[in-house]
TrEMBL record, chain A:
GO terms for biological process: RNA metabolic process. Keywords: Cytoplasm, DNA-binding, Nucleus, RNA-binding. GO terms for molecular function: RNA binding; sequence-specific DNA binding; single-stranded DNA binding. Belongs to the translin family. It is found in: Cytoplasm; Nucleus. InterPro entries: Translin, Translin_C, Translin_fam, Translin_N, Translin_sf. This is Translin. Coiled coil: none annotated. One of its GO terms (cellular component) is nucleus. The lineage of its organism: Eukaryota, Fungi, Dikarya, Basidiomycota, Agaricomycotina. SUPFAM superfamilies: Translin.
UniProtKB/TrEMBL annotation, chain B:
InterPro entries: Translin_C, Translin_fam, Translin_N, Translin_sf. It holds the Pfam family Translin. The lineage of its organism: Eukaryota, Fungi, Dikarya, Basidiomycota, Agaricomycotina. Belongs to the translin family. This is Translin. The keyword Nucleus applies.
Amino acid sequence: MDANDLETINASLDFDSDLREKIRDQVTVFDKKTRTMVGLFNKIHSTPSDEIPKLLDTVRPVLSSCAVITAGFAEIIPQDQFWRWKDMWSNSLRTAVFAATLLQYLTDGTLMPLSTVSSNLGIQEEWAGRFVLPAEDYLHGLISLVNELSRLAVNAVTLGNFQEPIKISLFVKEIFAGFAQLNLKNDTLRRRYDSLKYDIKKIEEVVYDVSLRKLAAPNQPTHP
Amino acid sequence: MISISSAFNAFREELDVHHDRRERLIKASRDITNLSKKTIFLLHRLALESLADADDGRRTSAAAKGYANLCEVQSLYASLRNELAGDRFWRYHQQVSPGLQEYIEALSFTHFLEHRSLIPFETVQRSLSDADRVPYLPLTTSDYLLGLSDLTGELMRLAISGIAQRGGRKQAMEICTFVRNCKADFEGFTPHVRELSKKQAVTSSSLEKIEDAAYAIVLRGSEYDLPPEMLDDIVASTIAQKRHDFGLDHGEEIAV
């Protein structure tokens, strides 16, 4: 191999491994933040509904601090190389989506759209090609949201909140119907989607138990 | 707020476009692999035929046929240009990479037959660019190295299959040195490029086969105090004599 090529190849390989190192550092910080949020959210299962807003206020600053991380990614990722490196952070990003959408659900019972999650994480449009929130990662986050809500349906009843399971059921069914509109390939998203039906079933059982015993108030909140 | 249903409709469209493009690229990559493999077989045939020629004329013409064949691959890449534009190249790199490596293997083999040297990175990138030197896709270091790594296997085949012919022994010795240098050059890259270490193991075993052949050449050559060309002549004339004895020198007539 000629000396010139040897040099440029070595330079390019060194550049890539430096970059990988930098990304890894960012991911570690990102991961810490998402873990903190998941940790805080764990308390929703034991927090009475009137104290939930206070709990959510502790999550908000952590979520908005993720903007520093995404800005860091956008700065170091070379133009058009987003997909080359995204596997390194997609787990953390999915968890961040989960946290943002759960926060929104617990705040006003609605689904936070992708664009809002994206802006909550500080992702800017001009970063296209360097850092974006792909639909796939958003959808993964939503599946985690459903997983979590099926747990919440059970635990809300334990805490004496009999309305929550019905609210969750309506919300989750809508998401499930959304997923049914997609043509999924045989990938992880498909497998996780397939597992959603067990969450739905679990929530339905809770709704059934609650309704049968007439525990839920008759004026059920109708879905928007 | 947009409804959940319409949001998912948009996702469906987005995912469908993505999956369809992915499928198209997988198919194209397979076609490219096929064409490249065929070119490699063609080059082996041509290289074997032209081995005995003292001048480089036929060898160059073998290379010319290789380049001509690979034009088809290049035009395929030209047609994929839009599919791989911007951030799409890296999104679909996994799908594109196998074909690209096979193409680089074929191109570097052609280049070797013409120049007896390793094809430079720039030359590969230029072959995948339009007349204004705008690349159809960005060539990556890893694809380049992995493609070249496969070349050593082809060279081993070339060295061994040509060994019984006039000029084949000299060629085998040349290739032996060349592959040894390749292996040494690549060794430094293995920590950086995944898959390369696996390919280095294949290169090592190819090299060993060539080395064993080179060993036999030297050993046998030493038993006769004659220049290698003369040995070639003795072997060639013996074969010709036998061919005549067996009435095989008019092969096509016998076949009738």
